[in-house]
Design goal:
The protein is α/β, with parallel strands linked by helices. The protein folds into 2 domains: about 230 residues, Aspartate Aminotransferase, domain 2, CATH 3.40.640.10; about 80 residues. Helix 1 packs across helix 8, helix 3 crosses helix 4 and helix 3 packs across helix 7. The two termini are about 25 Å apart.
Amino acid sequence: MMIPVLRPKLPSADRIGPYLAGIDRSRWYSNFGPLVCEFEERLASHFNIEDGTIATVANGTLGLVAALMAQGAPPGTLCVVPGWTFVASVNAVVLAGLTPYFVDVDASTWALEPHDVEERIADAPGPVGAVMVVAPFGQPIDYAAWDDFTHRTGLPVVIDAAAAFDTLRVCENPVVVSLHATKILGTGEGGFVASRNKSVIENIRRRSNFGFDRYRNCMVAALNAKLSEYHAAVGLASLDAWNNTRAEWMSVASAYRRASAKSNGVNLQLGFGETWVSSTCIVSVEERVHTKALRALAAVEIETRLWWGNGAHRHPATAVFRGADLPVTESLARSAIGVPLYRDLQVDQVQSIVTTIDAVAS
């Protein structure tokens, strides 16, 4: 029997039902209804931040767009974006009216580093108006360091933390989290933006609602990116079960950590399965065995995914944009493999996956 790369699991109908009954009573289906407001308040409580510091959105991509627009980056300027990211990061930059400028990531963190970005900005072929940072596959990054970067440079920063619900640290720069069904905590479709700067969150909320002020005057260029009450119902049910959900994810991730500790050819992201978890498990192998490992896994019906392909700069729609040299990104594309990870993946299946890779890596 094939082992799929993912099997999303949202709350059951029984868990969601009481919230749906509330929608029936209120007959309020969108436009910042009571469940959306409750969901935002509970998210703020979860991250130990004040009310008014969370804005829900229809999906993570639109959250990135709204966060860039809300910070006033001049249209047409360059936005630094890592080559090692999902293409949605780049699409958001374009939709916000900026031009992507690809910069390489650090080999150890797989993320942009502030001081390196400052150096790359000095060599950029035009004015840089913003920076898009990505927390790779949910791995923790130094959020506070990017606040310091903004204070030094004056440049707006948006952090794409799509997969980082488990590791999120809310600072001043807006951080965008995806709540897609495939994420560790999901609503089906959805996302949220978090920032301790309440004025930025207020601006993002306005940008998600046609740019309206309280009198329905359109004050700024904007989107329709609101989260519906139905998605908020799923989100609230997901939060109700979060402790158990996280424990299940961590149990499987820890099995990968134990299996990889005995392996010579399988490496995991720093801290994965120990201090943090996400809904994707990325293993690194030597470049020379990358293709062999993919074929070996396919031969025994273990599904894999190259989640970020050959890098965000390699798509037909993004190859037109300029960037610095990207040797680390190119190397990661030739060594990273997304292997199966879901809450009911069995320990013996994890061992089989690692053993299969090991057989070609040794």
